[in-house]
Amino acid sequence: MKQRILIVGAGFGGMWSALSATRLLDMHDRTDTEVVVLAPQAELRIRPRFYEPDVHKMTAPIDELFKAVGVTFVKGMADRIDVAGKKVEYRDEQGATATLGYDRLVLASGSNVVRPPLPGIEHAFDVDQMDTAVRLEQHIKSLGQLPASSARNTVVVAGGGFTGIETAAEMPARLRAVLGQDADVRVIVVDRGGEIGAALGDGPRPLIAEASEELGIEWRLNSSVASIDADGITLGDGQRIDAKTVIWTAGVRASSLTEQIPAERDAHGRLHVDRNLKVIGLEDVFATGDVACAAVDDEGNRAMMSCQHAIVLGRSAGNNVAASLLGVDPIPYGQPKYVTCLDLGAWGAVFTEGWDRQVKFVREEGKRLKTQINSVWIYPPAANRADALAAADPLIPIV
């Protein structure tokens, strides 16, 4: 009977885990171990692009890729993880319950935006998952059918972090594409911080402020949302902003499946892992991507909940979970080089290097890099066995 590596999730962490595990098994000419991926769909959803228009196009099929390398895909939604029994219960596409056993588990089930229990939070849109981003896009297109008003022409973005800034920067153009190029549109970012772009650090912050002014984006700093309704928001100080569109981007938490793993988690719900991405205290469970709280270096930095880190985390987790079955040495995860590329809409983009985010490229030059990242670098490899497995080498740097 074959041993089984079961990977829950087919996002960046899950897909690259599957390829990397297969690569190491192939290198050792082992056919007695199968790699199985359990996920709701055999496609990589390009989540970093969900703030853009045409969200339905932000996918890449991976079924042929998995077939080319010999990974088995099971379509279903994981419901329950039994660590003691080494099995995962899931619902298949017909809604029937089924079970998959494993010898090693890699949890790669991603993360979700945190929707707090605010009055009227159900009226808020988000760009977190494909279905919710599509819902936002449909809503924006429907604004053109409403009578002209300040509320119709106003978008409020709750949260001034990376996702909030990219979403806000895209909104003026997206609104004018529907309402007309001469439409008087407003985009307002509501943020608890005391400075524009405070979460991004000293390097990018003045450029975010410059881009915001050029794009006409307003910031309400030191502010919080008290309630939301179909026609706008009320801030914590009682101020009212009329807006037909409110987008929530504040806060992200790891998949709730981490709560079924008997191990320590951080404030974001991520499982603490060792340098080989094995969940601390468990021999047979690894975590990767947004569900892993992993050290990237010896300086105290931790992996961010981003595709940049998930890709390398995935390659490492796949290699090391296979190594644990093969009895060969793992390759400790490390990702000391950290970059960001912040899309600022029509203004351009800001590319930074290092954990202190030193600015390297801005405006058009930054935008060219952002376009290359979003349209080429983060997509899956071609469905060619040799090339796909070569691309899964955990020692390949992401940038």
Could you explain how this protein is built, in words?
It is an enzyme of class 1 (oxidoreductase). Its EC number is 1.6.-.-. The strands form seven sheets. Strands 7-6-5-2-1-8-19 form a seven-stranded mixed beta sheet. Helix 1 (12-27) runs parallel beside helix 6 (307-326) and helix 1 (12-27) crosses helix 8 (385-391). The chain is globular, with a radius of gyration of 22 Å. With 399 residues, it is α/β, with parallel strands linked by helices. It has eight helices and 23 strands. The mean pLDDT is 96. It has helices at 12-27, 63-69, 130-142, 162-179, 205-215, 307-326, 363-377, 385-391, and strands at residues 3-8, 33-39, 43-45, 59-61, 72-82, 87-92, 97-101, 104-107, 111-113, 154-158, 186-190, 217-220, 225-229, 232-235, 240-242, 245-248, 252-254, 271-272, 285-287, 292-293, 339-343, 349-353, 358-362.
Count of individual beta strands: 23
CATH fold-level assignment of the largest domain: FAD/NAD(P)-binding domain
Largest sheet: 7 strands, mixed
Radius of gyration: 22 Å
Low-confidence stretches: none
- Beta-strand percentage range: 25-35%
CATH superfamily of the largest domain: FAD/NAD(P)-binding domain
State mean pLDDT (0 to 100 scale). 96
| Cross-sheet strand order for the largest sheet | 7-6-5-2-1-8-19
Helix content: 25-40%
Seen as an oligomer or otherwise, the chain set is single chain
